[in-house]
Amino acid sequence: MSNQLNKISKFLSYVLRHQPEAIGITLDSDGWIDIDGLIIQANQHGESLTRELIEQVVKTSDKKRFTISDDGLKIRAAQGHSTRQVEVNHAEQVPPEFLYHGTATRFIDSIKKQGLVAGDRHYVHLSADEQTAISVGKRHGKPVVLKIKALLMYQQGFKFYLADNGVWLIKTVPIKFLQFD
């Protein structure tokens, strides 16, 4: 991804996931915003945003953080919201037997005490494969991959959701379902 597209991706993450009010926009309860309104507000706040650039970011982002509506009129972050005005309604899914969570070694003591908790986000983010979890963990320091007994959790009543970008979501993962290999 070019520097310009990377900059736009970071800007979109900021306003669609965390601080929409920073440019005077309001997301609906599912996180959607009209693309034309987003462009107008972004440009009034010094960003050079166009529909073509937005579409290019959505198509080329390896993390698939954004979704454009089927009618092409709206955009939202696929997951990872910290703003409380948004609660994306993902469909409940049956997870595979195991899912993975990438973190850094400095968080392990806390996780061993309280399990995985969403913190400022709506959900804990899980990966279907270890390599993705390693990549996520590297962003926070020396990576550690935790193996989650996802299907067992589901069978015991925990609800799993799958975001548009393939990230598995759950409210919490109690310690008893974690493997610290």
UniProtKB/TrEMBL annotation:
State the Gene Ontology terms under molecular function.
NAD+ poly-ADP-ribosyltransferase activity; tRNA 2'-phosphotransferase activity
Quick one: a GO biological-process term for this protein?
tRNA splicing, via endonucleolytic cleavage and ligation
Query: Any coiled-coil ranges, and where?
Result: none
Report any Pfam family annotated for this entry: PTS_2-RNA
Query: Top enzyme class of this protein?
Result: transferase
What EC number(s) does its UniProt record assign?
A: 2.7.1.-
Which UniProt keywords are listed? NAD, Transferase
Q: Which InterPro entries is this protein grouped with?
A: Ptrans_KptA/Tpt1, RNA_2'-PTrans_C, RNA_2'-PTrans_KptA, RNA_2'-PTrans_N
Q: Which family does it belong to?
A: Belongs to the KptA/TPT1 family.
Task: Summarize the protein's role.
Answer: Removes the 2'-phosphate from RNA via an intermediate in which the phosphate is ADP-ribosylated by NAD followed by a presumed transesterification to release the RNA and generate ADP-ribose 1''-2''-cyclic phosphate (APPR>P). May function as an ADP-ribosylase.
Cross-referenced HAMAP family: KptA
Name assigned to this protein: Probable RNA 2'-phosphotransferase
Per the UniProt record, the source organism is Pragia fontium DSM 5563 = ATCC 49100
List the lineage, top down.
Bacteria, Pseudomonadati, Pseudomonadota, Gammaproteobacteria, Enterobacterales
